[in-house]
Amino acid sequence: MTTPLPIIIDTDPGQDDAVAILLALASPEFEVLGITAVAGNVPLARTEVNARKICELAGRPDIKVFSGAIRPMVRTLVTAEHVHGKTGLDGPVLPDPKMPLQSQYAVDFIVETLMSRPAGTVTLCTLGPLTNIGLALVREPRIASRVKQIVAMGGGYFEQGNVTPSAEFNIYVDPQAARLVFDSGIPITLIPLDCTHQALTTAKRVEAFRKMPNNSGPAIAALLDFFERFDENKYGTDGGPLHDPCVIAWLLKPELFKGRLVNVAIECESELTMGSTVVDWWHVTKRPPNATVIRSVDADGFFALLTERIAKLA
Q1: How far apart are CA 181 and CA 38, in angstroms?
Q2: Are 77 and 71 in contact (CB under 8 A)?
Q3: Which residues have a Cβ under 8 Å from the Cβ of 297 and sit 6 or more positions away?
Q4: 79 closest CA partner among 125, 106, 47, 55
Q5: pLDDT > 70: what percent of the chain?
Q6: Neighbours of 260 (CB within 10 A)
Q7: Are 161 and 168 in contact (CB under 8 A)?
Q8: Cis peptide, bond prior to residue 40, ω within 30 of zero
Q9: Are the C-beta atoms of 146 and 119 separated by less than 8 Å?
């Protein structure tokens, strides 16, 4: 049997973050070393609770959850309750978690884990603003050479932005942290809106979760019933984009995705385009490539993987 891939999930749950966490916990290919919460979709006080709610929903109270950055490195926190609801997980009624929050600060956990484990073995799966990762790089720059890879949901190029005309939410919330990460030399796979806007939660796809005989399937259906309403109204589609699970799915089945190795720069100066991911898709600059940017996904294959795995949860 193949040795499971050690991962840290850095997240701001969020309905789509919740589905991503459930997919990871349903997949024996991963060793989830810990989940680090960050302020983003909702404030930190809620994201750290939401991460534990999802672990308990999956029947995995053994997973260690750490609380991280309460605000971006430089800017004022922007949240998205208008999308995710007041709790961040509006939809189903999930009980308050019984599992404890770890006492160690998430940034310290990230640094300690990367410095103590063999170099090139730990993958960071980032589903929210990159504040925790940026702070970890400031605290201990040597971690850059020890990360196996970062797989990040964020940004947009052909689709532009979803919180401003040119910026996607995760990057917009903390562009300074994002710039630190993209300038770090760590191998990065970026899964932007260009990809995730193809992974739509159609009525048929959501119904497959609703019919599952376990707890997680119907809970996902309830999460997506709430989550998709905003984007259905915004884009006029059947269902909304399911962003964050694409990170986990790419690690499981990269053949479902297509992209190219390019340079990505983060705009941090202009208020008009703050947080824009400037993707050199056509290699028109001399800037060296620093990220594999995913442009497309086989949506049917993605949802087949997702439903197959979630159905296996207790």
Answers
A1: 16
A2: yes
A3: 195, 196, 198, 199, 246, 249, 256, 257, 258
A4: 47
A5: 100
A6: 14
A7: yes
A8: no
A9: yes
3-state secondary structure 111-127: HHHHHHCCCCCEEEEEC
Measured CA to CA, the distance from residue 253 to residue 70 in angstroms comes to: 33
Burial class (CB in 10 A: 0-12, 13-18, 19+), 117: middle
Cα separation, 266 vs 55, whole angstroms: 33
pLDDT of 236 reads 81
* Number of other CB atoms surrounding residue 241 within 10 Å: 22
What's the Cα-to-Cα distance from 308 to each of 23, 26, 189, 217, 249, rounded to whole Å? Answer: 10, 9, 24, 11, 12
| 93 Cβ neighbours under 8 A, 6+ residues apart | none
Residue-wise pLDDT for 177-224, tens only, equals: 999 999 999 999 999 999 999 999 999 999 999 999 999 999 999 999
Who contacts 89 (Cβ-Cβ below 8 Å, separation ≥6)? 13, 14, 15, 18, 50, 53, 54, 223
Question: Inter-axis angle of helices 299-310 and 216-235, to 10 degrees?
Answer: 150
List the structure tokens of 243.
């962003």
Mean pLDDT of the chain: 96
d(CA 147, CA 144): 6
- Which residue of the set 84, 197, 243, 283 is catalytic? 243
Report the alpha-carbon distance of residue 314 to residue 191 in Å, rounded. 29
Q: Of 179, 155, 162, which is closest to residue 293 (Cα–Cα)?
A: 155
Task: Identify whether the C-beta of residue 298 lies closer than 8 Å to the C-beta of residue 306.
Answer: no
Among 81, 3, 8, residue whose Cα is nearest residue 42:
81
Query: Is 243 annotated in the active site?
Result: yes
**DSSP E strand boundaries for 3-88:** 5-11, 30-37, 65-67
